[in-house]
Write a structure and sequence with these properties.
about 230 residues; alpha+beta
Length: about 230
């Protein structure tokens, strides 16, 4: 009996240790995912703002209530195309930007297309309706909320006022400079598996709940709100 009891105890300890090891490895993997998405999004956003002739107008950026960035979205096509990728969304808070919530983007397109390419997308969410729409399980760009191609560059002020009625302004870059781009047929949905792993909260709680201070944010995600503050704060 003592031997059996010892074996049972040893087995339990081994299982607990294995489980802890697996959990730690999974957490590390999720943290790396969060860091990669936040870092890639920050880099893409800085790219658009650092090119004077194709930057988002400052006066327009300062009116945005939230910013979404989906870097390196893959669009593959052979007669019927589709796109997919991951990104982050931060909401404006007093004195800065919220911790980034993690989202997926996907959708299809039809037409005589052959090939594949990666595209960076930046979305300015201009009002509460746009934010609330994004927090649904599946939000169609160009569906319930108006999506317009965003103006760029120093001379865009005249066209800016014409687009302020849109809930979302979109920008994209496949090669070279960013351009304003209307995007329809794509769906954005929260990646709540990753949100829960990083924050213990879903996307709605991250973006609409009590904001985390910068020091409370996980170190892995801080680069995105820090980058946004460089270009817009109110």
């Amino acid at each position: 009996m003592p031997l059996i009891r010892t074996l049972i105890i040893f087995t339990i300890v081994a299982v607990v240790a294995l489980g802890a090891g697996l959990t730690s490895a999974q957490n590390n993997s999720r943290t790396k995912d969060a860091a990669r998405h936040s870092g890639d999004a920050a880099e893409s956003f800085a790219d658009i703002m650092n090119v004077k002739d194709s930057a988002i107008p400052k006066e327009l950026l300062d009116k945005a209530e939230a910013i979404a960035v989906f870097p390196s979205v893959v669009k593959a096509a052979f007669l019927i195309g589709g796109r997919g990728g991951q990104g982050v969304i931060s909401r404006r808070v007093k004195g800065g930007w919220s911790a980034p919530a993690f989202f997926n983007i996907n959708g299809g397109s039809f037409g005589p297309q052959i090939g594949a390419q990666k595209t960076d997308y930046v979305f300015l969410i201009m009002n509460e309706d746009g934010i609330n729409g994004l927090l649904k399980d599946k939000f169609e760009l160009g569906g319930e909320a108006g999506v317009s191609a965003g103006p760029v560059g120093r001379d865009a002020a005249a066209s800016t006022n014409l687009r302020l009625g849109a809930g979302i302004l979109s920008y994209s870059r496949s090669k070279g400079a960013y351009i304003g781009a209307a995007l329809k047929g794509a769906y954005i949905s929260p990646d709540n598996d990753l949100n829960e792993a990083i924050y213990g909260k879903n996307a709605t709680d991250v973006l609409t709940g009590k904001p985390m201070s910068f020091s409370e944010m996980p170190v892995a995600v801080r680069i995105f709100p820090r980058t946004l503050v460089r270009y817009s704060i109110r």
